[in-house]
Design a protein that fits this description.
- It is globular and about 40 Å long.
- With 127 residues, the chain is mainly beta.
- It has no helices and 11 strands.
Length: 127
Amino acid sequence: QVQLVESGGGLVQAGGSLRLSCAASGCTFSNCTMGWFRRAPGNERKFVAAVRRSGGSTYYSDSVKGRFTISRDNARNTVYLQMDSLKPEDAAIYYCAATAAYPSAVQILTTTAYNYWGQGTQVTVSS
């Protein structure tokens, strides 16, 4: 059973930074593509960022490109999301996701590409 546990959420002022972590267990982490999604109140879950197994390829939504950085440490079975220059519109529940498959560059942006999900961590950005 794959388990993903997010941490690092919290309250931050606009312009500030947070780093989210997602610890994985029950899978061969280095074989998994990892992603971050978020859901704001009243909205559906949306893609934020993803990283391939080796960490060599990363993907970002246009809304976070240049401000967020996804990375992974395969030795620690952990994926990170460094969030800088946070805006009030970044406030949401952030979810970590994983798949052992190799989704295409289009599929990797969608929730259906991922088999496993964490419980989410709340990020609140005050203006």
